[in-house]
Structure formats: structure tokens, C-alpha cells
Design brief:
There is one protein chain. The chain is an alpha/beta fold and 324 residues long. The protein is built from 14 helices and eleven strands. A six-stranded mixed β-sheet has the order 8-7-2-1-10-11, sandwiched between helices. Strands 6-3-5-4-9 form a five-stranded mixed β-sheet. Helix 13 links the parallel strand 10 and strand 11 (300-302). The longest helix is centred in the middle third of the chain and has 22 residues, at 111-132. It starts with 6 loop residues before the first strand and ends with a helix.
């Protein structure tokens, strides 16, 4: 580990949609700490996670009850690989599922608890999706102001049949709802300057259809070994920091069937933590892209490959030189 004061960092943790086959490969090959995390996951899960990460098939990896523990494992591997850098998170934020990984990195629970919660969350959400049907589409605009564009678009369908599940940036949002209604909106989107993309998910996350999953997960959280977090995790529902164990349980349950205001959260954190080093945990680069949509001047580092971690190390050396 490094000497000297810990480096202030804002950690962003991705959720579903950030996955790819072979994710975490470089972490596994170059970090003993990360490899140890994957080995523990292999013994704790009832499916062969290393094999699925390596070979898929993609249809199996994308199944919610499989995908959620897989993504949380990769994020935990990245967090373990970063430990030698002596980082001191001053704020964490997770996008949807990513909040589970964020509270783990914040010290609220051990990896075993993280994995158990991810597996149960994925199971409950898949069951709710099977019972309700529905899916999600991403809407993308070339210009800021997507909320106004969507308000006009949604006036063409029955109120309540679709909701804005994720407001990700001024240029991107995700809608959740019934398949046929979303298909209609996809057809209308180009005429409103929007591009519609169906997402590889198996249900309408962050909508009322997930209420039964939220209730079941709340019971699971009540039994879980969760303590106060060592540093604040900012939630994307009402844009505030959470550290107390009771609030952690409540937040992780209610976010399942409530919309994610990632745009509002990032705007707030950019104001408060401009001088910190920003890092996106693996997998993928989804949150890096969304941050750059919000603030083109943002400097954010990724943590999935040896090259990316070395780039972060170089920035830390520069930061230490400027701070001394």
C-alpha cells in the first residue's frame, strides 16, 4: 500500500446494462485481490460464475437473477484491485443495482452479504417481471432537454402505462412499461428528435410493476448483516447521502420500484466534489459516458483493465505532487 494521506475519491458503481462477456478478465489476470473475490463468489453462488463470465452464453448472462450477482462481483473485484492505491472515498453513488456495490465499498457489509443481496434482488425482480410482463427502452436526444421531449411524447399514450424509470442525463432517459406501448413510442420517437433503443433487460425495472419485488427484498434486507457505512453513499431518488444501517435497508428496498434521477445526482455531486478524483468501478463505461453528457470537462478514470488502473495511478502521483 502507499504511504501518505489517502486520496479523496468519488466512486461511481454501475448497474445492469454495463455487462459484457469476459468482463473482469484483466482484473482477474493482473490483480490477486480481484482474483480472490471471484474465487469466493464461485464458492458462494449456485451457478458457475467464472464460466458464465468467460463464455456466457450472453442470453444466460443477461438473465436478471444471474446478471445481478455477476455485476456486483465484478465491481467488488475492481474495488479490491484499487485497495493498494490508498483511496479515501468521500462520496459514492451507484446506478440502480450499483447501489448494492456502493454500500459494500463504503463498508456497510462484507462481500458475502453483497453477493447474497444481489442474488436475492435479481430473483425477486425476475419473478415480478415474469408476473407483470413489460420491458424498457432507452431514449436518446442530440440536445439537452430530453425531459420536455419525453413529456410531449408520453402525451400520446395512456397515463400510467409507461414511466420514466431512469433520467440518466440531459440527453438520455429510460422508459419502462408495457411492450406494445413502448413499441408505439419507439415508432413515434424519430419524429420528436429521439432515438429509441430496446434494452437487453427482462422486465420494467423502477416501475410500479416491481412493487412486489421491493416488498420481498425489504424482508431480505431486514435479515441481512448491515452496519453503518464508513462514508456516505448518495442515492439517486432524493439526492441525499445515506450512512445509517436502517436508512440503507430502506433505500435499497424502495429504489427497486422508484425512478432513478441520475442526472440530478451527478449535477449535485459535481458541485460538491470537483477537486476529488472521480472513478468508475468496473464493469463497462456507462457512467463515464453519462457523466461526460452532463459535464464535458469532467475527468473520470475507469478501473477494469491494467492500463486503466495504471492511468489512475499516474493521476494520483500528479495529485500528490500538487498537494505537497
Amino acid at each position: 500500500s502507499r504511504g501518505g494521506p489517502a486520496i479523496p475519491a468519488v466512486m461511481l458503481v454501475p448497474g445492469q446494462g454495463a455487462q459484457s462477456l469476459d468482463m473482469g478478465k484483466s482484473l482477474l489476470e493482473h490483480s490477486q485481490e480481484a482474483a480472490a473475490i471471484l474465487a469466493r463468489a464461485e464458492t458462494l453462488l449456485d451457478f458457475p460464475i467464472a464460466e458464465i463470465l468467460r463464455r456466457g452464453p450472453a442470453k444466460l448472462l443477461n438473465r436478471t437473477d444471474i446478471l445481478q450477482p455477476c455485476i456486483c462481483t465484478i465491481s467488488a473485484m475492481a474495488w479490491a484491485a484499487l485497495q493498494p492505491l490508498n483511496l479515501n472515498p468521500v462520496a459514492l453513488a451507484g446506478h440502480s443495482l450499483g447501489e448494492l456495490g456502493a454500500f459494500h465499498a463504503a463498508g456497510a457489509y462484507e462481500f458475502e452479504t453483497l453477493l447474497h443481496l444481489a442474488a436475492q434482488r435479481g430473483k425477486f425482480m425476475q419473478q415480478a417481471a415474469d408476473a407483470s410482463g413489460g420491458t424498457m427502452i432507452a431514449m436518446t436526444s442530440r440536445e439537452d432537454g430530453i425531459e420536455d421531449q419525453l413529456a410531449e411524447l408520453l402525451s400520446n399514450v395512456e397515463p400510467g402505462s409507461v414511466c420514466i424509470a431512469n433520467l440518466n442525463s440531459g440527453k438520455q432517459a429510460v422508459l419502462a412499461g408495457e411492450d406494445d406501448v413502448l413499441a408505439k413510442l419507439s415508432d413515434l420517437a424519430p419524429g420528436r428528435g429521439l432515438r429509441a433503443t430496446r434494452l437487453p433487460v427482462s422486465g420494467p425495472w423502477h416501475s410500479n410493476a416491481m412493487s412486489r419485488a421491493a416488498d420481498a427484498f425489504r424482508e431480505c434486507l431486514e435479515r441481512a448483516d448491515i452496519s453503518d457505512a464508513a462514508c456516505p453513499v448518495w442515492n439517486a431518488l432524493d439526492i441525499r447521502p445515506i450512512q445509517k444501517s436502517g436508512e440503507i435497508r430502506d433505500q435499497l428496498a424502495r429504489q427497486i420500484d422508484h425512478p432513478v434521477n441520475w442526472l440530478g445526482l451527478m449535477q449535485h455531486l459535481r458541485q460538491d466534489f470537483q477537486s476529488a478524483i472521480w472513478i468508475e468501478l468496473a464493469p463497462g463505461k456507462t457512467l463515464t459516458g453519462l457523466l461526460l453528457d452532463i459535464d464535458r470537462t469532467a475527468l473520470i478514470f475507469r478501473s477494469e483493465t491494467q492500463v486503466q488502473i495504471r492511468r489512475l495511478q499516474d493521476r494520483i502521483v500528479q495529485w500528490e505532487g500538487q498537494a505537497s
